[in-house]
Amino acid sequence: MEEVAGSEERHDADLVLLAMGFTGPENQLLEQLAVAQTPRSNISTPEGSYRTCVDSVFAAGDCRRGQSLVVWGINEGRQAAREIDTFLQPVSHLPVSGGIIPRTVSAQPEEISVPA
Predict the structure, then answer these.
(1) What pLDDT is attached to residue 26?
(2) CA–CA separation, 65 and 68 (whole Å)
(3) What confidence score (pLDDT) does residue 70 get?
(4) What is the residue-level pLDDT of the chain in tens, covering all 116 positions?
(5) Cβ(76)–Cβ(65) under 8 Å?
(6) Rounded to 5 degrees, what are φ and ψ at 94?
(7) Helix, strand, coil shares of the chain as percentages rounded to 5?
(8) FRET partner for 58 with CA separation of 20 to 30 A, picked from 4, 35, 44, 103?
(9) Following CA atoms 36, 41, 43, 46 in sequence, which dihedral angle do they give, to the nearest 10 degrees?
(10) SS3 for 37?
(11) Residues 21-36 pLDDT 10s
(12) Neighbouring residues of 101: CB distance < 8 A, sequence distance ≥ 6
């Protein structure tokens, strides 16, 4: 890409969302934080976790897995939020992947007798 002189435009806005296509995580920031990267320049995290090698730094979505479908980014964002929540406090009440928190039943239901 090359800048074209005189092509600038100015638009007032409260919020701007840029959809430019994923070109990889910002290397300068990752280098400053000393976050480990994969050979493909994505942020490296252990399998099954969103925590990076830097304490209190988490990664999810395209910066972690590479360019992918938005549904993967949404799912990873939710899972990362839950992992961050449990990092900050002992128990998270955020839903797990699939939206159901598994639970165990410790007591057997009482038998119900039906009159004949």
Answers:
(1) 82
(2) 7
(3) 84
(4) 888 999 999 989 887 766 666 677 888 889 999 999 999 999 999 999 999 999 999 999 888 988 888 888 888 889 999 999 999 998 888 887 766 666 566 666 566 666 66
(5) yes
(6) -75, 150
(7) 25, 5, 70
(8) 103
(9) -70
(10) strand
(11) 667 788 888 999 999 9
(12) 95
Contact between 41 and 25 under an 8 Å Cβ cutoff? The reply is: yes
**SS (HEC) of 43-71:** ECCCCCCCECCCCCCECCCHHHHCCCCHH
Q: Please report where in the chains the tokens 């897995």 appear, as a residue.
A: 65
| CA 76 to each of CA 13, 55, 103, 110: distance values in angstroms, whole numbers, following the listed order | 29, 19, 22, 41
Retrieve residue 41's tokens: 């320049």
pTM of the model: 0.64
Asked if 68 and 62 count as a contact pair (C-beta separation under 8 A), the reply is yes
| Residue 88: Cβ within 10 Å count | 9
